[in-house]
Amino acid sequence: MAIDPTLLSILACPQDKGPLLLIGDEVLYNPRLRRAYPIENGIPVLLIDEARDVTDAEHDDFVARGAASDTD
User: Fold this and answer.
1) Phi first, then psi: what are they for 37, rounded to 5°?
2) Could you give the CA distance from residue 13 to residue 33 in angstroms, rounded to a whole number?
3) pTM of the model
4) 63, 31 contact by CB (below 8 A)
5) What is the mean pLDDT of the chain?
6) In whole angstroms, what is the distance from residue 15 CA to residue 46 CA?
7) H or E element: which one contains 7?
8) What is the distance between the alpha carbons of residues 16 and 5, in angstroms, rounded to a whole number?
9) Does domain 5-70 match CATH 2.60.40.420?
């Protein structure tokens, strides 16, 4: 289940209030804080306690995938 583009445009990181990258249909990613928020059954879980830190390799992958989805 994909996240509606209109919804994605208004979602923000609960920690720094900045925009998030949609990575597949699996996570919303904040590249500034390197935090990934899960998407469960098509519903973003934007709770600070549910986010996880990502590795350098994951960060590079997520940023590349997020940038690629911007050009779709």
Assistant:
1) -105, 130
2) 10
3) 0.88
4) yes
5) 91
6) 9
7) helix 5-10
8) 21
9) no
